[in-house]
Amino acid sequence: MADSETSRTLHAISRRKKCPANHTPENLPYQIDRRNLLPVAAELLSARLAESGAARRESGPTPVRELWPQWYARQRHCVRATRLRKRLAAEMLKEAGGTPVADIERRTQVEAETPAQTRAEFRERRKLWRQADQRLGYSAAAALEQELAEQAGVLARVMLIMRPSSFIEVTAKLHCLIVTHDPGLKLEDPPWPELRTMLKDLIRIAGARSAKASARLMEARTKPSGTFTST
What we know:
Elements lengths: L1 H14 L21 H17 L10 H33 L4 H10 L5 H21 L1 H24 L5 H15 L10 H31 L9
Helix pairs in contact: 2-3, 2-7, 2-8, 3-5, 3-6, 3-7, 4-5, 6-7, 7-8
């Protein structure tokens, strides 16, 4: 029963609908700061890389424009898995209380010479945690979180050593770097404030380029193709 419930919960993480993109390349917010820098960059990159990704590529290493969507999907999936794991950990603490089972097992081994009553309390606490874990699926959620983090880490490392072939791919690499090492945008030591400023500048430039391209396309569509004259 617990396994099926856990499977449904974990499966729901990957199937959760994405929020509609409000920050399209042609509709960037007037103010970009720490509160919206990474989401705005992600939405712009999703749109621009989807356009460039449609182009046919030659055989060879996977380009940044294809790596970034794969990395970002796993990174967002990992964030949701982390939230689930923390929620389940809180529920387990309410049910079983006290020290996590891994710490209990470690202390039981280290303190083998503790009084019999203390060891009995450890065994009882460990039993309660295992029962709660079986019902809630905490271990499965923690394992999923670790697996997704490892996958996202591998993709990030590969992408960061790839040579970009366009302006938007440079922006994608910088976004990946900041999300990987400073997801909360809290680092104040150089070069992190400067890198955040650079990402904001690149977003503005990319948005302006996309807006101009859209305007040219719209003009081309509405411009008469020629004047028909009858003879």
